[in-house]
Design brief:
The structure is a single chain. The protein is built from 9 helices and no strands. By secondary structure, it is mostly helical. The chain has one domain. The radius of gyration is 19 Å and the shape is globular. The N terminus is likely disordered.
């Protein structure tokens, strides 16, 4: 009996295979999309807006978990969390680009200055995440050497910008744009970032 318990503990400590981690990321995305689509009519513009918001929140949540990964014993899943944050950010961008800008960048000047500023913050955050996602491989780590760690220091600023983007424009979920949810996400991002720096 003790041998069986020991085997169970050991298997629980082993990280899930990469394919399983990717499957979980897709499962979360599919579940979130299915739930939102059940709540809003298929032809509703609000549906697209809400899908964009949900993926934005999922992206920020995944990126925030990267900060305390060591303390939460999530280090084996840190890469998957970062890539999930990037994937959800792309889905967030696709939906909000279609809803807010009607699929055209030349509509940006017609938005309010507040919206423009928030979109710029989100765009910069996404741009910072691109090289991190592209170099999140063992090959890139070997190829870049010590420069890989330097490059991936862009992660915390990208996450803070994403949180500020959410607070600036608003994580709606049917609430007023600068609702308490956005403020809490921004405060949590800053707290995790400062905690991470002080623990070095």
């Amino acid at each position: 009996m003790s041998a069986i318990l020991t085997d169970l503990r050991e298997s629980a400590r082993r990280p899930l295979p990469g394919a399983v981690q990717a499957g979980l990321v897709l499962f979360v995305a599919a579940s979130a999309e299915s739930l939102v689509r059940r709540l809003y009519p298929a032809d509703s513009a609000v549906l697209i807006q809400r899908l964009g918001e949900v993926y934005g929140w999922l992206s920020l949540a995944a990126l925030l978990l990267v900060f305390p990964a060591r303390r939460l014993r999530l280090m084996p899943y840190r890469r998957a969390l970062g890539l999930a944050g990037f994937a959800y950010a792309l889905l967030h961008t696709a939906y909000t680009f279609g809803h807010t800008l009607a699929g055209r960048l030349d509509n940006l000047p017609f938005l309010s200055p507040v919206m423009q500023g928030g979109i710029v913050l989100g765009g910069v955050s996404l741009a910072l995440l691109v090289p991190l996602a592209l170099t999140s491989t063992n090959f890139a780590i070997r190829r870049l050497g010590r420069h890989w760690r330097t490059l991936h220091r862009l992660g915390p600023p990208a996450t803070l910008l994403a949180a500020l983007h959410g607070a600036w424009i608003g994580v709606h979920f049917g609430l007023w744009p600068l609702a308490w949810t956005s403020a809490v996400l921004l405060a949590l991002s800053a707290a995790l970032y400062l905690t991470r720096r002080s623990s070095r």
